[in-house]
Amino acid sequence: MANPPQVETVTSGADKAKLAAAVLLLVGALVAYYGLSKQGPWVQWGSLIVLLAAGVAAFFTSEHGKALIAYGHDSWREVRKVVWPSHKEARQMTAYVFAFVVVMALFLWLTDKTLEWVLYDLILGWKR
C-alpha cells in the first residue's frame, strides 16, 4: 500500500498578519461600539460598520479568505448543475414521505402497545 501524499499548508507571515489584523479589527469594532456609547448612535453604529467592513476586507485578502471565495464559487457552480424536481414530482415525494410517516407511526404505536400488553399483562401480571 502506498502512503497518500502529505499535504502541507504553508502560511506566510503576511497572511498571518492579515488574519491577525482581521481579528483585531473585529474586536476593535466591538470595543468601539460599546466604548462610544456616549457619543451617540450615529458614531457608535458608524464605527461598528466601518471596522467590521475593514476586518472582513482584511480576511478576504488573506489566503483563507481567497480559499473561502473559491469554495463559494465552486459550490455555486455545483448548485447550478443540480437537476431539480418538477412541482408535480416534489408534491408526489412529499405525499410519499407523509404516508410513510403515518404508516411508521401506526406501526410503532401498535408495537409499543403489543409489547406493553405482553410485558405488563401476560408476564408480570400487572393488569390495570
UniProtKB/TrEMBL annotation:
<keyword id="KW-0472">Membrane</keyword>
<keyword id="KW-0653">Protein transport</keyword>
<feature type="transmembrane region" description="Helical">
    <location>
        <begin position="93"/>
        <end position="111"/>
    </location>
</feature>
<dbReference type="InterPro" id="IPR005807">
    <property type="entry name" value="SecE_bac"/>
</dbReference>
<keyword id="KW-1133">Transmembrane helix</keyword>
<feature type="transmembrane region" description="Helical">
    <location>
        <begin position="19"/>
        <end position="36"/>
    </location>
</feature>
<protein>
    <submittedName>
        <fullName>Preprotein translocase subunit SecE</fullName>
    </submittedName>
</protein>
<dbReference type="InterPro" id="IPR038379">
    <property type="entry name" value="SecE_sf"/>
</dbReference>
<feature type="transmembrane region" description="Helical">
    <location>
        <begin position="42"/>
        <end position="60"/>
    </location>
</feature>
<dbReference type="InterPro" id="IPR001901">
    <property type="entry name" value="Translocase_SecE/Sec61-g"/>
</dbReference>
<keyword id="KW-0812">Transmembrane</keyword>
<keyword id="KW-0811">Translocation</keyword>
<keyword id="KW-0813">Transport</keyword>
<keyword id="KW-1003">Cell membrane</keyword>
<dbReference type="Pfam" id="PF00584">
    <property type="entry name" value="SecE"/>
</dbReference>
